[in-house]
Specification:
The protein is α+β, with helices and mostly antiparallel strands. The protein contains five helices and twelve strands. It has an eight-stranded antiparallel beta barrel with strand order 1-2-3-4-5-6-7-8. A four-stranded mixed beta sheet has the order 9-12-10-11. About 4% of the residues have low confidence.
Length: 370
């Protein structure tokens, strides 16, 4: 169950390049002390009396930044009539909790917490020789030493259960966890991680792989941009039609003879669209500003700029301020293009009038020339 759970987490969360079989392997040497949790069951008067030396050799490989396996050989030193008290050969499964709680970022953390579980074969020496199934549970606290993060100092506490022994070196037929047949280890060691096919000592993050969340976020941004693009296309098509009519009517005005006693009123509308909550002219509207500025300079007509806001967002006060700010922004842009400032007037309507049926289309400034 643990393997399946962490394999699932690993596949969905990691973005590392594929590794070869012998990549991300390591060797470790540990030494420390060992003692029985219930020393009286093993002929000792107290916990301190049962303390003896212990050493281990570990060969391992991390399959992913989260999940690893190692083969460990443990040798316990006797404190009485034997030089070697026991040996234990176990296969351990390791879980790098740092990379569980945040995605692997291209190199390991300075300090890593790596719990592990293992199962193996325990052999005792002396007058009573026994062979038993044993299991172990522990935690590696790893400190990286060098810039390449190839060397580690390891602090490794663990508890070992002899599962098929009754606590008095007598085999039983039923494996079980029993505190009377358990001993604890505390070891300190060093680990060296071999260089892999990527010329590093650790996993390499792939620039081409992404998590599902990253894909989802990317698709959401693409869909949002597509929606904005369709709105821009619609605005531009409407403005092309309006500008064409503006040019036609102004040309007609210029072609007609006007004397002091004749007044000709020609109403021409055009629009500049804005983003929600903004009075900044979008760069996509720059062409419309230049086109209308040229027509106004050529004709010398007076122009009124009327700003609007959409009714779905903002308060009445805010929408009124925003509509006037939009009209002033367009006025400033026209003046910057050479239109006479005295021929421009501005009005803000807020959201009191909605000139388009589609709500978003009402974030506009309308041009009216007379």
């Amino acid at each position: 169950m643990l393997v399946a759970m962490f394999a699932t987490v690993t596949m969905s969360a990691q973005t590392v390049e594929k590794s070869k079989f012998f990549d991300n392997t390591y060797v470790g040497f540990n030494g420390g002390v060992s003692a029985w949790l219930h020393p009286s069951h093993h002929g000792f008067g107290n916990f301190g009396e049962s303390i003896s030396g212990i050493g281990s050799l570990r060969l391992g490989k991390f399959v992913t930044p989260i999940l690893g396996f190692e083969l460990e050989g443990e040798v316990g030193m006797a404190n009485r009539d034997k030089f070697v008290d026991h040996t234990l050969v176990s296969v351990n499964m390791l879980f790098n909790m740092n990379n569980v709680f945040h995605p692997y970022r291209g190199e390991p953390d300075f300090v890593e917490f790596v719990p592990f579980v293992g199962i193996g074969w325990h052999h005792t020496y002396g007058s009573m020789v026994t062979n038993n199934i044993a299991s172990k549970f522990g935690m590696q606290v790893n400190f990286h030493l060098d810039k390449a993060k190839a060397w580690q100092i390891n602090v490794i506490p663990s508890i070992n259960y002899i599962m098929t022994d009754d606590g008095y070196n007598m085999p039983t037929n039923q494996p079980r966890f029993d505190i009377c047949r358990a001993y604890v280890n505390f070891q300190v060691g060093v680990t060296y991680k071999f260089k892999n096919s990527k010329k590093t000592h650790n996993f390499v993050v792939s620039p081409y792989c992404h998590t599902q969340k990253e894909f989802d976020d990317m698709n959401a941004k693409i869909n949002e941009q597509r929606k904005k693009n369709s709105e821009i296309v619609k605005y531009n098509n409407d403005l092309k039609t309006i500008n064409k009519r503006l040019v036609e009517e102004l040309n007609e005005l210029k072609s007609r003879k006007i004397n002091d006693s004749t007044i000709v009123n020609i109403n021409v509308n055009s629009a500049i669209g804005f983003e929600i909550g903004s009075a900044e002219i979008p760069h996509t509207q720059r062409g419309n500003i230049l086109s209308i500025a040229k027509v106004l300079k050529d004709s010398g007509a007076n122009i009124e700029l009327v700003g609007f806001a959409d009714a779905a967002t903002g308060s009445d006060k805010r929408n009124m301020e925003l509509s006037l700010a939009r009209a002033n922004a367009v006025a400033d842009a026209l003046v910057a293009c050479g239109v006479d400032k005295d021929k421009i007037s501005v009005v803000g309507k807020g959201a009191t009038e909605q000139i388009f049926g589609e709500n978003d289309a009402n974030r506009v400034v309308i041009f009216t020339t007379k």
